[in-house]
């Protein structure tokens, strides 16, 4: 689950991180009061969407010469003017894709005097099995370019899970970021705070870009992006209200209601698979035969008929889907349950695209018989290779 910048900052503030004063607003009417509650004279009006690159982003409706999604304002009137211009419009950034994202809320924040913009993130480094700080002196808006052109400027410091953030770790991070004096003392406080927030809240990413050194030498978290690990959501009731459904893919929201591991993708072959590994291989083999998967979907081990039906409906509801590949290895999952789920779903929503089904494992004969006797136009396949070739060919033929 992702959250907005203003929510991430509020969370980090609870842990004691230095963030600016700010107010989130949902309509332009609130802009004046929000700005007046801040010290001024410099304000920043920040689009709140679940994507980065807002500063360099462009509003679709406003043309190429209009300012981006993060704007400095020098008076209360200027804040109001910008808020009116930005709210409700569609911001396109490097991370949103061409469609962009509608800006439904803004964060009006106190402006900072920036001396240096740094990069600081925490993530789970799977290679070392550690939560790691990834830092760079080259913070700001183009960290992807830094990673690409000058990777030596990005430094990783892995944290021992037993020891936590040690004095030696802090010294390494401070030195990598060239922090000294007051800023280094601020770093001693900040880096353990970020680590504590990351681990206690089961984050999968905490990105502060930029972390700034202000003209007065102090550190401040100027931007914050947080993703939480959904596998740990059961122990974080307190985070549930932070979810913003308007930022999520409608198909993924529907899938989450049924506890389905579903990720929407750009291709045209819908996949229903059990097991994450098999789902990945299925996507790979579709690509191998020249097509693209429309989704990742793992229906899980002991999925019920209702769950399978829901999954199939989500796939067929996607207008981009031009063919469906059901690939089930029945271990715990039973092939007959899958077959019944598919049929129940087709009865409800119809089947307008080719469907290839590959069943193997527990109750495979019963499953195949159910499909054969259903009168459905199912193309059956024997193995993964056969299945992938058949669905790619069927989609090509139908096009
Ligand atoms: P994004 O990463 O989505 O472009 P940021 O929050 O990082 O958005 O803002 C982009 C840039 O705007 C920052 O790199 C910084 O230069 C400037 N900026 C953001 N917030 C403030 C602020 N409160 N005061 C002054 N400048 C800011
Ligand atoms: Mg940023």
UniProtKB/TrEMBL annotation:
One of its GO terms (molecular function) is ATP binding. Residues 9-243 form the ATP-grasp domain. GO terms for cellular component: cytosol; succinate-CoA ligase complex. Its cofactor is Mg(2+). PANTHER family: SUCCINATE--COA LIGASE [GDP-FORMING] SUBUNIT BETA, MITOCHONDRIAL (PTHR11815:SF10), SUCCINYL-COA SYNTHETASE BETA CHAIN (PTHR11815). Belongs to the succinate/malate CoA ligase beta subunit family. This is Succinate--CoA ligase [ADP-forming] subunit beta. The lineage of its organism: Bacteria, Pseudomonadati, Pseudomonadota, Alphaproteobacteria, Hyphomicrobiales. The gene is sucC.
């Amino acid at each position: 689950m992702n959250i907005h910048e203003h929510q991430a900052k509020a969370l980090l503030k609870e842990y004691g991180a230095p963030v600016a004063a700010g107010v989130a607003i949902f309509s332009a009417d609130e802009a004046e009061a929000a700005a007046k509650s801040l010290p001024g004279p410099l304000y920043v009006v920040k689009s709140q969407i679940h994507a980065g690159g807002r500063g360099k982003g462009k509003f679709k409706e406003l043309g190429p010469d209009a300012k981006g999604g993060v704007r400095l304002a020098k008076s209360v009137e200027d804040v109001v003017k910008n808020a009116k211009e930005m709210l409700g419009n569609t911001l396109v950034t490097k991370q949103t894709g061409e469609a962009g994202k509608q800006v439904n809320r803004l964060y009006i924040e106190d402006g900072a005097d920036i001396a240096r913009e740094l990069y600081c993130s925490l993530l789970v480094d799977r290679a070392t099995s550690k939560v790691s700080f990834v830092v760079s002196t080259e913070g700001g808006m183009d960290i992807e370019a830094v990673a690409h052109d000058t990777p030596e400027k990005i430094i990783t410091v892995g944290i021992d899970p037993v020891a936590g953030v040690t004095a030696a770790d802090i010294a390494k991070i401070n030195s990598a970021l060239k922090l000294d004096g007051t800023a280094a003392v601020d770093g001693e406080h900040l880096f353990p705070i970020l680590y504590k927030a990351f681990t206690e809240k089961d984050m999968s990413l905490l990105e502060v870009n930029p972390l700034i050194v202000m003209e007065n030498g102090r550190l401040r978290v100027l931007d914050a992006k947080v993703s939480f690990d959904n596998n740990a959501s059961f122990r974080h009731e307190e985070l549930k209200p932070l979810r913003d459904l308007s930022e999520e893919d409608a198909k993924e929201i529907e899938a989450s209601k049924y506890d389905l591991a579903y990720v929407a993708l750009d291709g045209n072959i819908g996949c229903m698979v059990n097991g994450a590994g098999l789902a990945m291989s299925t996507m790979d083999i579709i690509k191998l035969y020249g097509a693209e998967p429309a989704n990742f979907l793992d229906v899980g081990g002991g999925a019920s008929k209702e769950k399978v039906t829901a999954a199939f409906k989500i796939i067929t509801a996607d207008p981009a889907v031009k063919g469906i590949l059901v690939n089930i290895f029945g271990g715990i999952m039973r092939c007959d349950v899958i077959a019944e789920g598919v049929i129940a779903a087709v009865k409800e929503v119809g089947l307008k695209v080719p469907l290839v089904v590959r069943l193997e494992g527990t109750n495979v004969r019963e499953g195949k018989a159910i499909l054969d006797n259903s009168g459905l136009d199912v193309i059956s396949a024997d193995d993964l290779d056969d299945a992938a070739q058949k669905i790619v060919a069927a989609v090509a033929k139908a096009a």
